[in-house]
Amino acid sequence: MTPSRIAFERLLLELTTVGVDRVVLESRGPADRLDRQHLDALRARRLLTGIRVEHIPGAAEPLLWAADAMCGIIAADRRCVERYRAVVGTKLVTHVERR
Question: Is the pLDDT of residue 70 over 80?
Fold first, then answer.
């Protein structure tokens, strides 16, 4: 499994544990199909239930910028630029998956 699939799976599992039932992802066109296949596999293994995932074009959902901003905060934090991480404080939880 690719690192992006592992991260996608972990994200969905974490979100379900805190009661999220709808996830909106920015559409990547034909690549959305791979997300749906992975979701189907997780559901078939009964690892994921009760969550709806939608793909929406970035221009159609202005709040999708927030995920990009959080990725920027994490990237800066990994480079020891801490001032951005301080803005979100303990509200941001990161997990590092070891291969």
Answer: yes
